[in-house]
Amino acid sequence: MVLDGDTEYSLLINSRIRDNGHKVGLRISSEGEKKQVIMGGGSGNTFTGDVELSNTYLGLRKGDGVVAIKGNVFVNRSAILTFDSSHQLDRSSVVALKGGRLRFGSWGGDVTQSFKQLTVDSFGIISFGHENKPTAIKKLYLDDLLVRSSGELRVVGWAEGRDFILVKKTSKNLEAALKKMKFEGYDPSKIHLEDYNSEYWMINGAPEPATYGAGLMLAVLGLVRYRRRQKQRFPLRVGRRSVTASI
Predict the structure, then answer these.
(1) Number of neighbouring beta carbons within 10 Å of residue 221
(2) pLDDT 10s digits, 79-111
């Protein structure tokens, strides 16, 4: 499917896509300006082939738990795969970022997605959208996270306690992947694993030193101002003179 310059910005597909006697896959790309394709509707797709995205947005917006893609997804450069609803991929799917982006959309509320493996071949981004609902919980469950030797995975829009990247403790590639991850606004050397439950690790960042420094400076300034106010409000009077107490 090639979307040319005459195609509307958004193409909504509510009908079911099936194999129909042979394995069907999708290759979606845009010529010129990036276009958006949305898979919606209440019926799950049953085609089993792979999906390849190039210079396009693919938004998965079927009902929660209604599978939109059963095969693997290849997200090439300038392409974005967006989850607007929960459980849109088959549990056995693999998503490969080849310069593309995996995005949790801001269209709905809480969104949970789980699939077998996320692979980053060169460069990839996971982004968490919260423009419409800033407190919505976004969770990504993975059996394995693989960032190849020349790859880098960047995480943007992430906030602790609101957004979760969860990887099974049986993952063989997670330890190496951590060294190739960057959380926007966080110190790369402080990315670490925390227990989420008996089955999953939770990947967490830590504020950069500059953030700590700014917070400490604000606290010091606040204390100084507080002391000044206290001095003005509670002077000690000795005889006819007013002596300000130091705290």
Answers:
(1) 10
(2) 999 999 999 999 999 999 999 999 998 776 899
Contact status, residue 128 vs residue 163, Cβ threshold 8 Å: yes
Q: What are the distances in angstroms from CA 202 to CA 86, 161, 216?
A: 19, 11, 27
Residues 193 and 213 in one domain: no
- 148 and 28 share one domain: yes
The 3-state DSSP class for residue 241 equals strand
φ, ψ for residue 182, nearest 5 deg: -135, 130
Proportion of the chain above pLDDT 90, given as a percent = 68
Residue whose entry in the numeric block shows the structure tokens 């910005």: 9
Q: Which domain holds residue 120?
A: 2-206
Asked if residue 190 and residue 89 are part of one domain, the reply reads yes
- The strand pairing partners of 94, in sequence order, are 117
Q: What mean pLDDT is predicted for residues 119-143?
A: 92
Q: Is this prediction's pTM over 0.90?
A: no
Closest CA to 167 of 129, 124, 119, 133: 119
| Beta-bridge mates of residue 123 | 152
Q: Are 103 and 81 in contact (CB under 8 A)?
A: yes
On whether both 170 and 218 belong to a single domain, the answer is: no
Same domain? For 33 and 107 the reply is: yes
Could you tell me if 201 and 114 lie in one domain?
yes
Total Cβ atoms within 10 A of residue 117: 18
Are residues 9 and 114 located together in one domain of the fold?
yes
Say how many domains are in the chain: 2
